């Protein structure tokens, strides 16, 4: 019989449930994700560092977990990083029995190996309504020893998830992209490598101006973008040049901050696979995968920049682009994994801009 654990909120609410995964206590920001699939990808997305993820899909674990050690081209085949990044997992029904063609382990066993606690048998609908009404809040999963509440937005989490040295993928390709790793999801690297470019992955605070490259990419990542000061300062220098710049999620926020815009914390964030965004100036709408708690204030974008996409649910900024230079960034995740791939064309558009720049400056 599974042991009892509690989900405790900073406002005092305590919810009793059953333990799966590691029987241990952990604290973080409680956020909800409404995606129906993709728990392995979300759990290993470095953007979730410091967060306790509530999944509203009623059954979690039913398709198990694939081999998290399988690698292709030195990247985890089935995962978005080399480990589980969340602090804890909250689900309604945990399915211990699984069935899937490439699953090799139970979700609970995988969590336990990495000392991540899970709680099931709780009313995730009630919890989600609480978070929507009151906003994301600090919380903790408590096993047999209590822990202090922990606010991940006060920590420089990007430094904890970024690579520690320069890593090259597809070395020797004609087009070279510097990828600033703020907690990059593996599928972003796959999307570039599959398009035949070399990816030069550098730490979040690395001075990439010393490198030979043709285009710049700023990755997704955890925590408050305002804490990434070295990255913002490096991007400020890049904005003075004409080399193409692309960014995703945290990358959108960092380029916006470097350009002189500001960011703010959303009440409960966007974490789902069904967020509708409109391409500004058109009637086109795309359904996107999203996982963010901060947003760019596009009410006063700096000279030369305009809103690229807008969220059709709440009108928030979903990307910015420069009016004349090849700079564009998006708040959503065109690389998906999981979720819809409708906006993956943005990788092609960026690489086209890079090739144009490269031939014009040959
Ligand atoms: N996925 C991300 O890159 C998240 C960006 C940032 N940490 C936010 O929560 O808004």
Tag the structure with descriptive keywords.
362 residues, eight-stranded mixed beta sheet, globular, 8 helices, seven-stranded mixed barrel, alpha/beta
What would your notes on this structure say?
- Residues 1-176 are annotated as: CPSase.
- Pathway: Pyrimidine metabolism; UMP biosynthesis via de novo pathway; (S)-dihydroorotate from bicarbonate: step 1/3; Amino-acid biosynthesis; L-arginine biosynthesis; carbamoyl phosphate from bicarbonate: step 1/1.
- There is one protein chain.
- By secondary structure, this protein is of the alpha/beta class.
- The protein is built from eight helices and 24 strands.
- Strand 23 and strand 24 form a beta hairpin.
- The chain is globular, with a radius of gyration of 20 Å.
- Bound molecules: glutamine.
- Cofactors and ligands present? glutamine
What Rg, in angstroms, do the CA atoms define?
20 Å
Number of helices: 8
What is the average of the pLDDT values? 97
Largest sheet: 8 strands, mixed
- Which structural category fits the helices and strands? alpha/beta
Helix content: 10-25%
The count of DSSP E runs of length 2 or more, i.e. the number of strands, is 24
Proportion of β residues? 25-35%
The shape, in one word, is globular
Low-confidence stretches: none
CA-to-CA gap between the ends?
68 Å
Spatial strand arrangement across the major sheet: 14-16-15-17-18-24-23-21
């Amino acid at each position: 019989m599974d042991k009892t654990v509690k989900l405790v909120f900073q406002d005092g609410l305590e919810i009793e449930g059953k333990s799966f995964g590691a029987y241990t206590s952990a604290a973080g920001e409680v956020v909800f994700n409404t995606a129906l699939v993709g728990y392995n990808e979300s759990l290993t997305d470095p953007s979730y560092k410091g967060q306790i993820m509530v999944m509203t899909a009623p059954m979690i674990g039913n398709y198990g977990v694939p081999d998290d050690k399988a690698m292709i081209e030195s990247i985890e085949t089935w995962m978005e990083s080399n480990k589980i990044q969340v602090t804890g997992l909250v689900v309604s029904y945990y399915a211990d029995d699984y069935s899937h063609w490439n699953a090799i382990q139970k979700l609970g066993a995988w969590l336990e190996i990495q000392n991540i606690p899970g709680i099931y048998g709780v009313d995730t609908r009630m919890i989600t309504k609480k978070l929507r009404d009151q906003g994301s809040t600090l919380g903790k999963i408590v096993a047999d020893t209590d822990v202090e509440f922990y606010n991940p937005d006060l920590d420089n989490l990007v430094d904890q998830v970024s690579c520690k040295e320069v890593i090259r993928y597809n070395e020797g390709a004609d087009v070279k992209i510097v990828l600033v790793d703020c907690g990059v999801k593996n599928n972003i690297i796959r999307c570039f490598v599959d398009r035949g470019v070399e990816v030069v992955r550098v730490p979040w605070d690395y001075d990439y101006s010393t490198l030979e490259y043709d285009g710049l990419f700023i990755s997704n990542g955890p925590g408050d973008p305002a804490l990434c000061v070295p990255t913002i300062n490096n991007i400020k220098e890049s904005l003075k040049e004409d080399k193409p710049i692309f960014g995703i999620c945290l990358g959108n926020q960092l380029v916006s901050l470097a350009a002189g815009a500001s960011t703010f914390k959303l009440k409960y964030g966007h974490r789902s696979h069904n967020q509708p965004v409109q391409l500004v100036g058109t009637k086109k709408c795309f359904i996107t995968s999203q996982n963010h708690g901060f947003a760019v204030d596009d009410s006063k974008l700096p000279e030369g920049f305009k809103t690229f996409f807008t969220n059709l649910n709440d009108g928030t900024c979903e990307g910015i682009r420069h009016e004349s230079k090849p700079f564009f960034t998006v708040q959503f995740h065109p690389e998906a994994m999981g979720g819809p791939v409708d906006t993956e064309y943005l990788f092609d558009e960026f690489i086209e801009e890079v090739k144009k720049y490269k031939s014009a400056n040959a």
